[in-house]
Write a structure and sequence with these properties.
Length: about 350
């Protein structure tokens, strides 16, 4: 089977990450429980007439895809695979609001049509005139991991040469209020710089779009090689450290072979224990990194973690802001990423320097 490479990246997040010439050079500190993205100039990527009709998530996705393609020196790809946990929430809320306000009569279908989860992938395909395989995964907090797994299988079996993948989610005001009521979002405003010191339930939520061009051919622009990815809905009676060791064993690696572990700590006192188990146990002598204090929590936030790990492998630069400990500053060859959301949908992703 062929090797799978990450040939380009783009991240639109609550930091200025869409500019690939920089790498967390200027950090934006937020103090809230809902943090917005730092928007690029969408006019550079989408015509104003199109942009007016697009939901926030669609605009983020289209812009991020075009930046990723430019980074890979491509005009189009063989396939497009997107992942989203909640889809185009704002249009969904708009349609449901109109349904109630108009007593279920005289409704225009526009918001409903644009609220479907595959709107982002479809709009990207229209922009690129890509008529190839186009699929959207809606697998809650492993939606992005599902895109990686699908693309990896296609490339390994030579079913495509270049595939655009991405994870995108947006904030919806009404949905955010519901998440606050059930303590999925923190009730209080929290400084992102103090996120790990939080002793309350819930996370700081955000939105974002992270896109990558994967290929079975290595280029000068390549960032990393994807070695393996595995997802687990629930742990059962297993401990996360046992599962991590089993995952490494399956890939013929021991703990010492991992140069860095990227963890998805989000400040939720109820569920950060999964990460703490790894950081204080199996990987206590490994360089540890976290990222959700920068991008916030959302269903495809793990895609930001892949962006971060890819940039570290290519630049061999480790920004101070993401360090959980201080054991290693350079010579990163193999990185393990671990993410979970509210005790479910655990995932391990293994990346290696090209």
């Amino acid at each position: 089977m062929k090797t799978v490479y990450i040939n380009s990246v783009c991240s639109i997040s609550s930091q200025k990450t869409f500019d690939n010439s920089e790498f967390l050079d200027e950090i934006i500190y937020h103090e809230d429980n809902l943090i917005p993205v730092v928007n690029p100039n969408y006019k550079d990527y989408i015509s104003p007439s199109e942009s007016r009709r697009m939901a926030k998530g669609v605009k983020m996705g289209v812009a991020a895809s075009k930046i990723a393609l430019k980074d890979a020196n491509l005009d189009t790809v063989d396939a497009i695979i997107t992942g989203t946990g909640m889809g185009c929430l704002r249009d969904s809320e708009k349609f449901l609001g109109a349904l109630i306000d108009n007593d279920e009569q005289f409704l225009t279908p526009t918001s409903f049509i644009q609220s479907t989860h595959n709107t982002v992938g479809g709009q990207i395909a229209l922009n690129l005139q890509c008529k190839g395989y186009n699929f959207t995964y809606v697998h809650s907090s492993i939606s992005f991991e599902s895109t990686v797994l699908d693309a990896k299988l296609m490339l390994e079996n030579n079913e495509a040469n270049t595939i655009l993948i991405g994870g995108v989610d947006e904030i919806g005001d009404y949905t955010a209020k519901l998440h606050q009521i059930i303590n999925h979002i923190k009730a209080e405003k929290t400084s992102t710089s103090e996120l790990l010191n939080s002793k309350t339930e819930g996370a700081v939520f955000s939105e974002g779009a992270n896109f990558f061009v994967l290929s079975n051919e290595k280029q000068t622009s390549s960032y990393a090689e994807i070695i393996a990815i595995s997802t687990y809905n629930t742990l059962g009676n297993s401990k996360i450290s046992d599962l991590a060791k089993s995952f490494l064993d399956e890939n013929n690696l021991d703990i010492d072979a991992i140069d860095m572990v990227v963890l998805g700590n989000n400040g939720d006192v109820t569920f950060d224990g999964f990460y703490n188990e790894l950081s204080s146990g199996l990987f206590k002598n490994t360089q540890q990194v976290y990222y959700k204090h920068l991008c916030g929590e959302f269903m495809t936030a793990s895609s930001f973690g892949v962006w971060l790990a890819s940039k570290i492998l290519k630049t061999q630069k480790l920004p101070e802001i993401v360090k959980l400990n201080n054991l290693k500053d350079s010579n990163f060859k193999t990185i393990l990423l671990y993410n979970q959301y509210r005790g479910e949908n655990h995932s391990f992703t293994l990346l290696r320097k090209c």
